[in-house]
Automatic annotation (TrEMBL):
One of its GO terms (cellular component) is plasma membrane. Homopentamer. Keywords: Cell membrane, Ion channel, Ion transport, Membrane, Transmembrane, Transmembrane helix, Transport. Pfam families: MscL. It comes from the Bacteria. This is Large-conductance mechanosensitive channel. Gene3D superfamilies: Large-conductance mechanosensitive channel, MscL, domain 1. GO terms for molecular function: mechanosensitive monoatomic ion channel activity.
Length: 145
């Protein structure tokens, strides 16, 4: 049971997902700060409200404190979502799609993708040294006049 759990945790996609969640949380804080500190005051100023969350109130009854729908808070959430979606699209999705299209065009044109250079191993080096020594030995024993 412990080994199965260890294998599950050590899978690459679990680690990638954890990193994505952490980065997403940090990114959400940045976008929220932008919305709360820039867009909310601008929109609230258009509606003569202290904050966007208090803009466009709709009272659902009468009395001293009737239940109230705060449309400004909904607008703030929609703006927050739109900003996150725009950044994800323009920073991640669009460039990756362009890269994939470029790779597909290269493949269809018969141009190979960038070759991955394999690291030189000790066996490769020893083989190269052997071949050079053999070549030099053959040159030294060549025809003598």
């Amino acid at each position: 049971m412990i080994n199965g759990f260890k294998e599950f945790i050590m899978r690459g996609n679990v680690i990638d997902l954890a990193v994505a969640v952490v980065i997403g949380t940090a990114f959400t804080a940045v976008v929220t700060a932008i919305v709360v500190n820039i867009f909310n005051p601008l929109i609230a100023a258009m509606f003569n409200a202290e904050t966007l969350a208090k803009a466009l109130p709709i009272a659902l009854g009468s009395g001293e404190k009737p239940p109230t729908i705060l449309l400004g808070a909904v607008i703030a959430a929609v703006i927050n979502f739109a900003l996150i979606a725009a950044v994800v699209y323009f920073v991640f999705v669009l460039p990756l799609n362009k890269f994939k299209e470029s790779q597909d065009r290269r493949r269809s044109a018969g141009i190979p993708a960038a070759a991955v250079v394999e690291p030189t191993t000790e066996l490769d080096l020893l083989t190269e040294i052997r071949d050079l020594l053999a070549k030099n030995a053959a040159a030294d024993q060549g025809p003598k006049h």
